[in-house]
Amino acid sequence: MTLILRTLAGLSLAAALASPAFAKGDIEAGKQKAYTCAGCHGITGYKNAYPTYHVPRIAGQNYEYLKAALHEYAKGERSHPTMQAQAESFSEQDIDDIASFLSSLSEEGAK
Ligand code: HEC
After folding, report:
1. What percent of the chain has pLDDT over 70?
2. What is the mean pLDDT of the chain?
3. Band of the pLDDT at 73, cuts 50, 70, 90?
4. CA separation for the pair 73, 69 (Å, rounded)
5. Whose CA is closest to atom 33 on ligand 1?
6. Ligand 1 centroid – CA 73 distance (Å)
7. Cβ 43 vs Cβ 102: under 8 Å
8. Would you state the pLDDT for residue 24?
9. CA distance 73 to 88
10. What percent of the chain is predicted at pLDDT more than 90?
11. Displacement of CA 100 from its chain's centroid (Å)
């Protein structure tokens, strides 16, 4: 029993060390929270709703970059009505989870 627990602890530590870029938030929770983003940003498994304006790719984007961008929208340092409304409704945890999920996606999310 003790041995199993130690092995599990060792494995999760190894996993955390192996992926420092997206070990901060909860990827599964972020996936749920990022559901509404797909319509505009076109994320893995979802078709992009034909955008008539430029929508930046966020799937596979850098974790720190995503966090910074969402904070900037929330604080009004970047202004875009839709994104500000989205970002203002998020808690720190939400932003962490969403950034973790999006940064965990591979390039295929861009297709
Ligand atoms: C109604 C459409 C729409 C929805 C829904 C939407 N976005 Fe956006 N998003 C945009 C547009 C348009 C921009 C570009 C805005 C600008 O020029 O500042 C943007 C920009 C961004 C950026 C900055 C990207 C960059 O490279 O600068 C991030 C990060 C982002 N969105 C994340 C999200 C997340 C996370 C969600 C879901 C919670 C979401 N967006 C939902 C339309 C949307």
Report:
1. 64
2. 78
3. very high
4. 6
5. 37
6. 9
7. yes
8. 83
9. 7
10. 48
11. 4
